[in-house]
Amino acid sequence: MGRVSEYQYYQFLAVERPLSECQQGELRKLSTRAQITSNRMTNHYEWGDFKGDPVALVERYFDAHLYFANWGSRRLLLRVPSAQVPLKTVLPYCRQDVLAAHRHGAYTVIDMVSEDDGADEDQWVQEAEWDDEEDEGALAELIGIRDELCRGDLRSLAIARLTDGAAGPEPRDSPGRADTLPGPLSASQQALAAFLRVAV
User: At 90, is the secondary structure helix, strand, or coil?
Assistant: First the structure.
């Protein structure tokens, strides 16, 4: 892909249940250009911005959301059943500016962010030749994180906590310290570390 002055990529994925035709119609009102199917919505922008609120869309429709831009911003949102991943389990890993979580109905919503304003051209943008008609598109490498969390493997939270740009020093007893990441990491966890620019 050639260099562009601005590039933003949005992908949303429904895992637990397909989107109804009514829901797809509601989403279409947010964007006439987006690719919308029964289990995903994708769009990219070389000018302008997405009109929807990603957090609200994950709360209502989707189980995962991925965003990246060529100026270095990256974000992964996951919606997981609170019965399997209680908010109280996630909160000790939360760290200002890089990892947050909240409860919405029967779900815990986890928000992972990585910012690098000094990025000349984001690596994910250079490789953004995703075929969104097959598999999970750009989320293919990361969606496994959701299943791992539901099975009780919390190492992805520790990885997200280590993201550069977090506000405040890392406590000595932090659950996200590198020495609390027993290996080998799964392929999804390695992909998450690369996405969030965490050295593990």
Answer: helix
DSSP state of 30: T
Query: How sure is the predictor about 172, in pLDDT bands with cuts at 50, 70 and 90?
Result: very low
Mean pLDDT of the chain: 85
Q: How many CA atoms lie within 13 A of 74 on its CB side?
A: 24
Exposed e or buried b for every residue in 143-166, given b needs 16+ CB within 10 A? bbbbebbeeeebbbbbbbbbbeeb
Angle at 25 between CA 56 and CA 53, to 5 degrees: 20
**Whole-prediction pTM:** 0.87
Structure tokens belonging to residue 85: 């991943």
For residue 96, with 0-12 CB atoms within 10 Å meaning exposed, 13-18 middle and 19 or more buried, which class applies?
Answer: exposed
